[in-house]
Design a protein that fits this description.
Blueprint (H helix, E strand, L loop, with lengths): L4 E2 L5 H9 L3 E6 L13 H16 L3 E3 L21 H16 L5 E6 L5 H13 L3 E5 L11 H10 L17 H11 L18 H25 L3
Parallel strand pairs: 1-3, 2-3, 2-4, 4-5
Bound molecules: zinc ion.
Zinc ion (ZN) binds next to helix 2.
Length: 233
């Protein structure tokens, strides 16, 4: 297991040397948005950081950037605490961070754990690549509860158990996401779920969360290995 290197803890000559040796910068992209009555608003940010940390443990060429704690969360409007910067600002933040990061690092990876960032992230990364920058994006994918349900609850129980209020967890809207999508796109989550949950967090365990996180981290590690194997250092 490799020690985790955090950009924020390093001084510039150390970063210069790491980058010169082919290090890649992993930038966690999160959100500050409601995750039901039982999970903290930082849930997506925590998951993105955890995936970057797992990647840094599995390879010795990873430096982790400070996380971006805001994203495009307009669909969660009407739930207290959600702070969204919208699609355009998210795209611009990712684009400018990518350009700036590539001044130092030859390889940059964005790890987003928030579905709402998908559009801006895809557009920003496509643009950065057109500009000849070696930038990639990774978004964990899972079958099952899309928002604040079993999966995110289990993962948070393993990552930050003290922030999870299981006594307040309750079943949300369990209909398949594809059925809810038209209404969701039009009116946001508020229209389809009273408590902000899509899925069912009841019965989630830290044990299962650990397993799930391990699988997501392994998928990320495979993707990065394939990427780095095809590019010169
Ligand atoms: Zn989430």
């Amino acid at each position: 297991m490799t020690a985790v290197r955090r950009l924020a803890d390093l001084a510039w000559p150390e970063v210069h040397e790491l980058a010169a040796n082919g290090a890649l910068l992993a930038i966690p992209l999160g959100a500050t948005e409601q995750h039901g009555p039982h999970l903290p608003l930082s849930t997506d940010t925590e998951v993105a950081i955890a995936l970057c940390e797992a990647l840094a443990h599995s390879r010795d060429d990873v430096v982790i950037a400070p996380a971006v704690p805001y994203g495009s969360s307009g669909e969660h409007i009407g739930f207290a605490g959600t702070l969204s910067i919208g699609q355009d600002a998210t795209e611009l933040v990712i684009t400018e961070l990518g350009r700036s990061a590539c001044e130092t690092f030859a390889h940059v990876l964005f790890v987003s754990a928030h579905g709402g960032n998908a559009g801006p992230l895809t557009r920003a990364v496509a643009r950065l690549r057109v500009e000849s920058r070696d930038v990639r994006a990774y978004t964990p994918a899972w079958d099952g509860d899309p928002h604040a349900g079993h999966i995110e609850t289990a993962i948070m129980l393993t990552l930050r158990p003290t922030t999870v209020r299981m006594d307040r967890a309750e079943t949300g809207n369990t209909r398949p996401l594809r059925e809810l999508m038209p209404q969701l796109r039009e009116h946001g989550l508020r229209a389809v779920t009273e408590n902000g949950i899509l899925g069912d967090p009841l019965g989630a365990t830290a044990f299962h969360g650990d397993l799930l996180l391990g699988r997501l981290a392994a998928a990320l590690s495979r993707e990065v290995s394939a990427w780095r194997a095809t590019e010169p250092a």
